[in-house]
Amino acid sequence: SISDAAEDAGVSPIVSADVIWLFAFCIAGAINCVYAAVLIHRGGSWALFVCDSNATRRWGVCVISGFAFSGHIHIYGTASNLLGGSLGPVIAWPTLMCSTMVFGQIWGLKLREFVAGDHGQVANGLATALLCFAIVLCSCAAII
Fold first, then answer.
1. Which of 2, 8, 35, 114 has the most Cβ atoms closer than 10 angstroms to its Cβ?
2. Distance (Å, rounded) from C-alpha 3 to C-alpha 10?
3. Residues 78, 124: contact at Cβ < 8 Å?
């Protein structure tokens, strides 16, 4: 496997699975960048994307977001390995998924994606709570 090859090359077993994420992020990132470029080209909005007065801020937020996303996947992989055995992924994965969804909702509120009391905000909050419950429930079932 890729993680075994990484260990053979001298990578610590704690982070050897992260090599897999490198391939996944590069491939998925390339596909998403091409798709976004096609949409920007079709919309004729390259000037807005590059030269807008807020472009520097948006590029900075984009870079921070990329590091945060990659970092939280790295933390998941490391925590999963440190917790060990079959219990590591059972605890680390639901924690990662629930925290991702909750923080996504918090950022949605902060960025005003929904108006306070809007049906969309209420539905998203309930859906997030339900998904977190389902993830924890399925993970608990994996322990049994």
1. 114
2. 11
3. no
